[in-house]
């Protein structure tokens, strides 16, 4: 299960998406996530599906690899869907004891599940096609205007990049510790919820120790290399917009315009309308 988490990993490939400026991919990801929550019509979600599918195809990242990360949110999907099915008021479709499944609940559950899936996959497109260094440079450049109000832009960008980079490392470390503990007779599967939580203690203690050790090693390595923040630092490969980046911005604007148009038309506002 831990190896199924793809967030924070980089998949090398020779694609147009990989070559885009990280600022374009950041803007595209933000706009795409906004569109998922701002527009609710069925047509809008069809357009969002086609757009996401096209980006995955162009990125040359295997769909199986990208969709693999969804296994880690199956529980969250089920929990969210169940709450929406039974707690959203509306016309009763099915009654189970004192619980009622409504038409609005079904619609909300479906839309919320789609949003969560597309949110994970859409974010994975950016992280899988952008190296941690490029992501740091893109974040710092995009948030550059905030320096005027003394926001530590470089430090924030560095922390976010390191956090993303450490996700797959910590997952791999957790997997190794689990296998070592299971070889020594540890059982992480049996028992109820409380017992399973107690069984995780032998895993969490060495994991935290390993995480702190890695953080200390990283801090010492950065200090040994003369790192003292972003002031006065130069870039070996400064970010410069190219023609393909400007074209990508036009594609994003066209996507948002189409989403806004189909949402205003509202040909199919609801599954039960």
Explain this structure to me?
The longest helix is centred in the middle third of the chain and has 31 residues, at 153-183. The chain has a two-stranded antiparallel sheet with strand order 1-2. 19% of the residues are buried. Helix 2 packs parallel to helix 11, helix 3 runs parallel beside helix 6 (103-128) and helix 5 runs antiparallel to helix 6 (103-128). The protein has eleven helices and two strands; from the N terminus they run H-H-H-H-H-E-E-H-H-H-H-H-H. The protein is mainly α.
Task: Please outline the helices and strands.
Layout: H1 16-19, H2 22-38, H3 42-59, H4 63-67, H5 74-87, E1 92-96, E2 99-102, H6 103-128, H7 132-142, H8 153-183, H9 193-199, H10 201-224, H11 243-265
Antiparallel strand pairs: 1-2
Describe the structure concisely.
Mean pLDDT is 81; it is low at 268-273.
Task: Supply the key terms.
mainly alpha, two-stranded antiparallel ribbon, 11 helices, disordered C terminus, 273 residues
Order of helices and strands: HHHHHEEHHHHHH
The chain-level mean pLDDT equals 81
How much is the radius of gyration in Å? 22 Å
Count every helix, treating DSSP H or I runs of 4 or more residues as helices.
11
Percent in strands: under 5%
* Number of separate strands: 2
Order of strands across the main sheet: 1-2
Helix percentage range: 55-70%
C-alpha termini separation: 40 Å
Low-confidence stretches: 268-273
Oligomer: single chain
Structural class: mainly alpha
Largest sheet: 2 strands, antiparallel
């Amino acid at each position: 299960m831990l190896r199924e988490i793809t967030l924070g990993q980089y998949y090398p490939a020779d694609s147009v998406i990989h070559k885009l400026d990280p600022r374009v991919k950041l803007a595209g990801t933000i706009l795409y996530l906004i569109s998922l929550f701002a527009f609710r019509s069925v047509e809008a979600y069809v357009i969002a599906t086609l757009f996401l599918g096209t980006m995955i195809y162009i990125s040359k990242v295997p769909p199986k690899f990208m969709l693999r990360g969804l296994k880690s949110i199956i529980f969250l999907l089920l929990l969210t869907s169940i709450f929406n099915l039974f707690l959203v008021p509306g016309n009763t479709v099915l009654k189970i004891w004192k619980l009622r499944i409504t038409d609005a609940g079904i619609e909300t559950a479906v839309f919320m599940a789609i949003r969560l899936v597309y949110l994970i996959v859409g974010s994975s497109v950016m992280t899988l096609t952008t190296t941690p260094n490029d992501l740091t440079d893109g974040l710092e450049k995009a948030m550059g205007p905030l320096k005027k109000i003394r926001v530590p832009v470089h430090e924030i960008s560095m922390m976010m990049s390191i956090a993303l980079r450490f996700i797959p490392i910590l997952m791999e470390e957790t997997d190794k510790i689990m296998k070592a503990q299971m070889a020594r007779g540890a059982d992480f599967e049996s028992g109820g919820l409380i017992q399973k939580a107690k069984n995780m203690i032998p895993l969490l203690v060495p994991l935290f120790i390993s995480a702190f050790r890695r953080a200390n090693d990283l801090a010492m390595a950065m200090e040994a290399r003369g790192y003292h923040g972003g002031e006065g630092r130069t870039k070996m490969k400064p970010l410069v917009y190219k023609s393909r980046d400007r074209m990508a911005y036009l594609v994003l604007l066209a996507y948002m315009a189409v989403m806004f148009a189909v949402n205003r038309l509202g040909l199919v506002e609801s599954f039960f309308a």
